[in-house]
Amino acid sequence: MPELFAACLALGAVAGILAGLLGVGGGLVIVPALLLIFSFTAIPEAVQAHLAVGTSLATIVATSIASVRAHHRRGAVRWEVFAGLTPGILLGALSGGLLAGWLAGGTLRVLYGLFALVVALLMALDLRPKPQRRLPGPWGLGVTGAGIGLVSALVGIGGGTMTVPFLTWCNLGVRSAVATSAACGLPIAVAGAAGFLWSGWGDSRLPPYSSGYLYWPAFAGIVLTSTISAGMGARLAHSLPASLLKRGFAIFLFCVGVYLVT
Prior knowledge:
Blueprint: H1 2-22, H2 27-38, H3 45-73, H4 79-100, H5 105-125, H6 138-155, H7 160-169, H8 174-200, E1 210-211, E2 214-215, H9 216-236, H10 242-261
Antiparallel strand pairs: 1-2
Helix pairs in contact: 1-2, 1-9, 2-3, 3-5, 3-8, 3-9, 4-6, 4-8, 5-10, 6-8, 7-8
């Protein structure tokens, strides 16, 4: 337990710095890192992926609150867009968390690996959709939110890699798109974590200090340091070559994706 907690403290620091430096969600780092950390423990392999994804979502609940408050103070969040996306997000993310309970650990690993490969390609090529259309109506936003919530919950992220491009495509400015996406990360994380808690409740293979597929020692270690280091990453973004670092992170994600898929 002490070794695992120390590793999660270090993981939280790295995830927070990368989130602030590159504007990527911590879940992209936390899930594969937890899979690696859990592989050195007595946690059964069959539930390692479930615990990694569920715990990642739980950490996003804590970290997104501070992010949303910061964006709101600057008046950047489009709350009417958030309100349109949230019902679908809640349904999709909760469904994703419940669905994960029916999936084998190997299947979850492959799903994350495929997602990591797609994100790596988009980051490496710096592909961004150009503003081309208006925001859809309530039903369109609801369906889009459900899709974002479902995928985000299954891979343990806050959804920014999908929400920001969608909002940018719909002619929201980058500042508003990022801020609104950060707000959307909270219902994704809450509903997704609730689904993982519910679907894993009573699983006899879980380690002590778990609630469903949420592993609290890892959660505590990550949150303690990630909330502090994110600000450090944001400051470093003004002095380091972020574009070069982003391509390096894309290579990391590509390697992770290939490893998990194969």
